[in-house]
């Protein structure tokens, strides 16, 4: 098969590595890709949200399957454009991608399908949103209704924090158009986990689960980020519990989307809270997570490519998905200043040495190659260092040894990824 993978992050590097292992692969193109994906296929300098350019590339290179990585091209209609051109795409239509493109749309689907989620209201202007917060009190959650690259959620512990978040999003346009309207909802309490499944129509096939560490600082402090690390599988959330959560939180959504005439196909990423009342949905994303994908895909034993093809052609019920029993962990190395203004341009050494350590994998994200052929930082989240092990403690030790092997003056990372899971398992760190 000739495959076009769309995206440039650590998730796409991990996906490219898994696709490249397939005996079915004839050629792999990545648009725009990064220095890591360049070793696995052909990078093409077309932006991930350039739908027309991506379709033209797919036509020129006789692509059999387009595999979207990030959400932006899906919300922009990449799958629709591929379908119009007669090209298979393992992702949802623009209408179905509204599950990620609009928080209020997701809430409406949940209400219609009776999917347990937080109580909520949507607001298009500041005054009624502030009044709602004053009436309900804190803690409370403020969400930008649109796409905000993982940075559109504020868990406000005080009314003042909630009011500041509302004004920043709606008055100051801190998140651009994404925050023109907001969803305000009750704060759910419990362990947050990420659940992944391949979906097509009314069929869902479990991929697996991971637990992200969203905040920038140790002890889950500071602002939310796109994710600073993940462990897989989450402690206390085995495959039986994952399947049970699919029955409650994903399959009813698929039925509702079919009823609406906008069936979903692709990867669904259900962010959920394990509450005392059972799992409740936080949000849907319409693609693999980052850095969850990196932790998941290094445990994958089956062939990813036919699974992706089955999503596109609707033969999902025959999909074979197998993972090792290993534990895995991913640790994000970000640039100093992230999630604000990251420092760019620093030279990074030691990536190859880290990748040769037992069980360690290093995925590029915000990197580029300079004129001298050196790898330099060019983004917020720059590298993801991952590892597998027979236990989470072993995987964690290996991953942090990998981090230590990388030399980059502007690097920042969390030193407590997986610690809470280890405490829950009773393992030594």
From TrEMBL:
The keyword ATP-binding applies. InterPro entries: ATP-grasp, ATP_grasp_subdomain_1, PreATP-grasp_dom_sf, PRibGlycinamid_synth_ATP-grasp, PRibGlycinamide_synth, PRibGlycinamide_synth_C-dom, PRibGlycinamide_synth_C_sf, PRibGlycinamide_synth_CS. It comes from Gluconacetobacter johannae. Residues 107-313 form the ATP-grasp domain. This is Phosphoribosylamine--glycine ligase. GO terms for molecular function: ATP binding; metal ion binding; phosphoribosylamine-glycine ligase activity. Pfam families: GARS_A, GARS_C, GARS_N. The keyword Nucleotidyltransferase does not apply. Belongs to the GARS family. It catalyses: 5-phospho-beta-D-ribosylamine + glycine + ATP = N(1)-(5-phospho-beta-D-ribosyl)glycinamide + ADP + phosphate + H(+). Its cofactor is Mn(2+); Mg(2+). Its EC number is 6.3.4.13. It comes from the Bacteria. One of its GO terms (biological process) is purine nucleobase biosynthetic process. It is an enzyme of class 6 (ligase). Keywords: ATP-binding, Ligase, Nucleotide-binding, Purine biosynthesis. HAMAP family: GARS. Pathway: Purine metabolism; IMP biosynthesis via de novo pathway; N(1)-(5-phospho-D-ribosyl)glycinamide from 5-phospho-alpha-D-ribose 1-diphosphate: step 2/2. The gene is purD.
């Amino acid at each position: 098969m000739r495959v076009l993978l769309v995206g440039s992050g650590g998730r796409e590097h991990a996906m490219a590595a898994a696709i490249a292992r397939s005996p079915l692969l004839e050629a792999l193109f990545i648009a725009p890709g990064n220095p890591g994906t360049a070793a696995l296929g052909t990078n093409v300098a077309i932006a991930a949200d350039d739908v027309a350019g991506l379709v033209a590339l797919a036509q020129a290179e006789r692509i059999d399957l387009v595999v979207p990585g990030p959400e932006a091209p899906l919300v922009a209609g990449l799958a629709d454009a591929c379908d119009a051109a007669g090209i298979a795409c393992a992702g949802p239509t623009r209408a179905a991608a509204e599950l990620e493109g609009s928080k209020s749309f997701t809430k409406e689907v949940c209400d219609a399908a009776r999917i347990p989620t937080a109580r909520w209201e949507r607001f298009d202007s500041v005054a009624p949103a502030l009044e709602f917060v004053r009436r309900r009190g804190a803690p409370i959650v403020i969400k930008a209704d649109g796409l905000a690259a993982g940075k559109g959620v504020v868990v406000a512990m005080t009314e003042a924090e909630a009011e500041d978040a509302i004004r920043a999003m709606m008055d100051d346009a801190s998140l651009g158009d994404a925050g023109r309207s907001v969803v305000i909802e009750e704060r759910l309490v419990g362990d947050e986990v990420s659940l992944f499944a391949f979906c097509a129509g009314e069929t869902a096939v479990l991929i697996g689960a991971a637990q992200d560490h969203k905040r920038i600082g140790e002890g889950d402090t500071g602002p939310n980020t796109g994710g600073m690390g993940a462990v897989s599988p989450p402690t206390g959330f085995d495959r039986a519990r994952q399947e049970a959560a699919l029955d409650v939180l994903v399959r009813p959504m698929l039925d509702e989307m079919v009823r609406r005439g906008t069936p979903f196909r692709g990867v669904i990423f259900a962010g959920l809270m394990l509450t005392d009342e059972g799992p409740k949905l936080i949000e849907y994303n319409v693609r693999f997570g980052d850095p969850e994908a990196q932790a998941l895909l290094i445990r994958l034993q089956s062939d990813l490519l036919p699974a992706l093809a089955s999503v596109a052609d609707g033969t999902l019920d025959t999909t074979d998905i197998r993972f090792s029993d290993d534990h895995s962990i991913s640790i994000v190395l970000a640039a100093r200043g992230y999630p604000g203004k990251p420092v760019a341009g620093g030279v990074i050494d030691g990536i190859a040495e880290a990748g040769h350590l037992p069980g360690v994998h290093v995925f590029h994200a915000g990197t580029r190659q300079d004129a001298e052929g050196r790898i330099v930082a060019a983004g917020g989240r720059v590298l993801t260092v991952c590892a597998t092990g027979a236990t989470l403690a072993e995987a964690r030790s290996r991953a942090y040894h990998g981090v230590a092997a990388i030399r980059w003056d502007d690097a920042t990372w969390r030193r407590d990824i997986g610690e809470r899971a280890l405490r829950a398992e009773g393992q030594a760190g």
